[in-house]
């Protein structure tokens, strides 16, 4: 199968990697060649890690790399695709623009998926001439490790499109959970409310970020505490999701003032070196002073 991933960032390159590891021919497209190159380099680095853990060998790595192609040309990226997965930033108008372009250049029978974590799939796919072939395929970060994929059924999604998405998810060795298209779906809605309450607890002085994270990791068996997770996904992303859910679902999703303060200060988490924790070379080295 030919898979095209639109976006070579943290989510996009992970989706491309697992698709290629499953034997698919994969094209990764982004708007700048440097971004494409960085994404392909990240995949190679991930595969080197898999070799070190005896999950694959050098020959398998070479085969996976050979199935990957990078480009900045959207038309070339999608023209032979059986499946297109959009993995652009969480912006409705941006995603609609991408879908409009995909609709023009991709084969009429290609399945079109979006990796949105919270936006309305029903609204997003409405720009397509045939929205019955579109569906949400929501991966979790890091996509090459996390097992879960939310399969989001839009109002327009055809039964055969849903079955295709289920089969693809199984083929890449992920666990698919089918949800209907509601704001935040299931995971983002629950994750957002947990992150918001955890940030409010820090804001009110209930406990430190480390204390809250440790409580959830040891008391509830979470592999990663909510504030570490917020730093990992990006505090700007968390803010955008909460703002959207507040608009759609009400004041219980009101973003905490501390979250707004950190985003305004450019302290977005792991990707900027500081959020609720401080990071050096991507590794947590302490808590933020704020």
Automatic annotation (TrEMBL):
Keywords: NAD, Oxidoreductase
Domain of life: Archaea
Residues in 3-hydroxyacyl-CoA dehydrogenase C-terminal domain copies: 184-279
Binding site for NAD(+): 7-12, 30, 90, 95, 117, 141, 271
InterPro entries named among the record's database cross-references: 3-OHacyl-CoA_DH (IPR022694), 3-OHacyl-CoA_DH_NAD-bd (IPR006176), 3HC_DH_C (IPR006108), 6-PGluconate_DH-like_C_sf (IPR008927), 6PGD_dom2 (IPR013328), NAD(P)-bd_dom_sf (IPR036291)
GO MF: NAD+ binding; oxidoreductase activity, acting on the CH-OH group of donors, NAD or NADP as acceptor
GO biological process, one term: fatty acid metabolic process
One Pfam family here: 3HCDH_N
Annotated site, Important for catalytic activity, chain positions: 138
Span of domain 3-hydroxyacyl-CoA dehydrogenase NAD binding: 2-181
Protein name (record): 3-hydroxyacyl-CoA dehydrogenase family protein
Organism: Natronomonas salsuginis
Organismal lineage: Archaea, Methanobacteriati, Methanobacteriota, Stenosarchaea group, Halobacteria
């Amino acid at each position: 199968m030919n898979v095209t991933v639109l976006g070579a960032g943290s989510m996009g390159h992970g989706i491309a990697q697992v698709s290629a590891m499953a034997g698919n021919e994969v094209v990764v497209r982004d708007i700048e060649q440097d971004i494409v190159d960085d994404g392909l380099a990240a995949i190679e680095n991930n595969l080197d890690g898999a070799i070190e853990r005896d999950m694959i060998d050098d020959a398998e790595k070479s085969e996976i790399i050979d199935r990957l192609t990078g480009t900045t040309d959207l038309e070339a990226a999608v023209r032979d695709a059986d499946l297109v997965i959009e993995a652009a930033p969480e912006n409705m108008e941006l995603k609609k623009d991408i879908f409009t372009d995909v609709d023009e250049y991709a084969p009429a029978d290609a399945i079109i998926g979006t990796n949105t974590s919270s936006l309305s799939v029903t609204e997003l796919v409405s720009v397509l001439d045939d929205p019955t072939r579109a569906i949400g395929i929501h991966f979790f970060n890091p996509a090459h490790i996390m097992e879960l994929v939310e399969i989001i059924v839009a109002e327009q999604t055809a039964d055969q499109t849903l079955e295709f998405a289920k089969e693809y998810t199984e083929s890449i060795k992920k666990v698919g959970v089918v949800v209907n298209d509601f704001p935040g779906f299931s995971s983002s809605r629950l994750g957002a409310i947990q992150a918001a309450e955890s940030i409010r607890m820090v804001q009110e002085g209930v406990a430190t970020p480390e204390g809250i994270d440790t409580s959830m990791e040891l008391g509830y068996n979470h592999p990663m505490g909510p504030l570490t997770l917020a730093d990992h996904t990006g505090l700007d992303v968390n803010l955008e999701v909460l703002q959207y859910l507040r608009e759609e679902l009400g004041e219980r999703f009101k973003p905490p003032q501390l979250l707004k303060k950190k985003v305004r200060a450019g302290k977005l988490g792991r990707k900027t070196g500081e959020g609720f924790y401080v990071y050096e070379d991507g590794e947590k080295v302490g808590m933020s002073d704020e």
